[in-house]
């Protein structure tokens, strides 16, 4: 009997799209915490306001320059019936135009079983948690370490309380000291961590 395809969710920036600027994210996060004295128990992300804030956010996301190596493997895995892919991005609503550009370029409506954007400007980790639970995903691939930690802890299946979504982390060179059970340095290597008959590395 053939196994059901795994329901796999993919973040956009830093996962499906190669973004060299993501390398400096750990540094920026550390500077903000030191400078602003941030010591929150709950995770909270900055939501850019209209004007300069949103303009700078748009410039930052322009650094997502091309489809990440491994994207072709998603197409193959779907065609072979191994995965049921979904696109879930925490991008805020003012980035919708660039999001639609990338959707068209990757032919997302043909490839993915569903595409979800955070156009209501929810906190990104809460938005992703909600969608992951609604879809009851088996796997989610994410590049933001803070979000990875949150989702790995909180994404328990609504239908089966013993089942958790496996969260795979696409890390970068500056995160080498952090240990995590499902850690990869690229989309291609992240796909190799999924329990599938075919492996990509």
How many helices? The count is 8
CATH class: Alpha Beta
The coarse overall form would be globular
In CATH terms, what is the architecture?
3-Layer(aba) Sandwich
**Structural class of the secondary structure composition?**
alpha/beta
Instruction: Calculate Rg over CA atoms.
Output: 17 Å
Count every beta strand, where a strand is a DSSP E run of 2 or more residues.
Answer: 8
Tally of structural domains:
1
State the CATH superfamily name. HAD superfamily/HAD-like
Mean pLDDT: 84
What would you note in describing this structure?
It is globular, with a radius of gyration of 17 Å. Mean pLDDT is 84; it is low at 30-39. It has 8 helices and 8 strands. It is α/β, with parallel strands linked by helices. The protein has helices at residues 25-36, 52-61, 71-79, 96-105, 108-111, 124-135, 145-154, 187-193; strands at residues 6-10, 17-18, 66-67, 83-89, 115-117, 139-142, 166-170, 183-184.
Please provide a brief summary of the model.
The chain is 37% helix and 15% strand. The protein is of the alpha/beta class and 201 residues long.
């Amino acid at each position: 009997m053939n196994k059901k395809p795994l329901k796999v969710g993919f973040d956009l920036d830093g996962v499906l799209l190669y973004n060299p600027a993501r390398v400096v994210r750990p540094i920026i996060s550390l500077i903000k915490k030191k400078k602003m004295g941030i010591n929150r128990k709950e995770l909270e992300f900055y939501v850019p306001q209209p004007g300069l804030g949103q303009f700078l956010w748009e410039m930052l996301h322009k650094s997502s320059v091309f489809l990440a190596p491994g994207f072709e493997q998603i197409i193959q895995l779907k065609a072979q019936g191994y995965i049921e892919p979904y696109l879930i991005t925490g991008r805020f609503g003012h980035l919708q135009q660039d999001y639609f550009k990338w959707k068209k370029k990757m032919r997302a409506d043909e490839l993915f079983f569903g595409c979800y954007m955070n156009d209501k400007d929810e906190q990104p980790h809460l938005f992703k948690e909600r969608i992951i639970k609604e879809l009851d995903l088996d796997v989610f691939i994410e590049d933001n370490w803070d979000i990875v930690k949150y989702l790995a802890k909180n994404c328990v299946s609504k239908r089966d309380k013993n089942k958790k979504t496996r969260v795979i982390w696409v890390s970068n060179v500056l995160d080498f000291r952090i240990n995590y059970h499902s850690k990869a340095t690229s989309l291609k290597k992240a796909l190799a961590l999924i329990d599938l008959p075919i492996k990509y590395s």
